[in-house]
Amino acid sequence: MSTLTRDGRPWQAAFLLAIDAEICIGCGRCFKVCGRGVMTLRGVGEDGALVDLDDDEIERKVMALADAGACIGCGACARVCPTNCQTHGPDAEMAAA
Question: Could you give the domains of the chain?
Answer without folding.
Answer: 14-96 (3.30.70.20)
